[in-house]
Amino acid sequence: MWPLFRRLQGAKLSINSPGPATGFNPHAHNLNLTPEQAYQQAIKQGFALLNVPINEGLLKKAMRSTQCGAFVSFEGWVRQHNNARPVQGLTYYGYELLAINQGTALIEQARQRFNIEQAIAVHRMGHLALGDMAIWIGVTAAHRVPAFEACHWLLDGIKAEVPVWKQEFYADSSEALWLSNNG
What we know:
Mean pLDDT: 86
CATH architecture: Alpha-Beta Complex
Number of strands: 9
Largest sheet: 5 strands, antiparallel
Structural class: alpha+beta
Oligomer: single chain
């Protein structure tokens, strides 16, 4: 578990609080790229973070190739419940530089491990409402089996290894909980 997350786990913060005594401000999003730059990073390097809604059409279009007979994608959405609690929304936070490095490394590992042409993953940061897309993964390959396997492997890897966590807000309480990206 990441040290910062360990310090924040179970922390109770109001929406306007400056955060724990560490000086960490959980509401400051300093993604260094514009959305256009982030999409270019995703297309060229395979992984990016965005603080605006994900344009899956743009990503899918960038992956089109006459060499591929298969395209598999996954969209993860904010649902209205988690662990039997009614969810109102959530906010994703992360260690941006490490997240991008880890995500890019996972994309490269997928390319080496599976017989695929291309893989792209984009993870949202910031506040998301119910139904918003939190993550998009796309994989192209000559055949469907490696595309499905790589997409599944990437989702599991991103959730386990990329330093992104979430603060979940509930309808039955004014307290929000900090959770790992695995829920």
